[in-house]
Amino acid sequence: MRFPLLRSRLQIDPYYRFQTLAEVQQAAALGVRIDVNKAAVDDWLRLPGISIHQARTLVQLTQNGVQLYCLEDLAAVLDLSLQRLAPLAPILQFCYYDPASLSPQRLNPNTASIEQLQQLPGIDAALAHQITRERLAIGPYRHLADFQQRLDLPGGLINQLLPYLRF
């Protein structure tokens, strides 16, 4: 059995944070992969040398529709040299996703325009205007429950909007 210590750590904790670049290489040999364009913050934090700030930036970019196609793209986003990222390459997967086939782009109601809000199911012109007026008058929506309460929205509409909103 190859790399028994790392294998047992991964069985105990599938989100084990690799401590060394050697562990990254071993994990890649065991079949562990991170899909760069679908990785969550916790996925990025598994990699040595990736900070919480960098992980959040990467996730925010990919959630906003930016796709990374190669190690060079990742290096550019993180403002790091290719040499620094090269040891991580074996565990990283750069998969292409057709934008039309991806799940709907999530919209932040704190920054969205009236036109963008009207593209969401269940939001007409009047509600889009109410959303923007409320955020300008009182401040940004803190979370989904705050959004629902301040706008007095029914639960059914919130369920309909769940896949489309992010805060």
TrEMBL record:
Pfam families membership: HHH_3
Can you list the GO cellular component terms from the UniProt entry? type II protein secretion system complex
Q: Which Gene3D superfamilies match?
A: Photosystem II 12 kDa extrinsic protein
Q: Which GO terms describe its biological process?
A: protein secretion by the type II secretion system
Alphabetical list of PANTHER family matching this protein: ENDONUCLEASE/EXONUCLEASE/PHOSPHATASE FAMILY DOMAIN-CONTAINING PROTEIN 1, ENDONUCLEASE_EXONUCLEASE_PHOSPHATASE FAMILY DOMAIN-CONTAINING PROTEIN 1
**Know the name of this protein?**
DNA uptake protein
- Which species is this UniProt entry from? Cyanothece sp. (strain PCC 7425 / ATCC 29141)
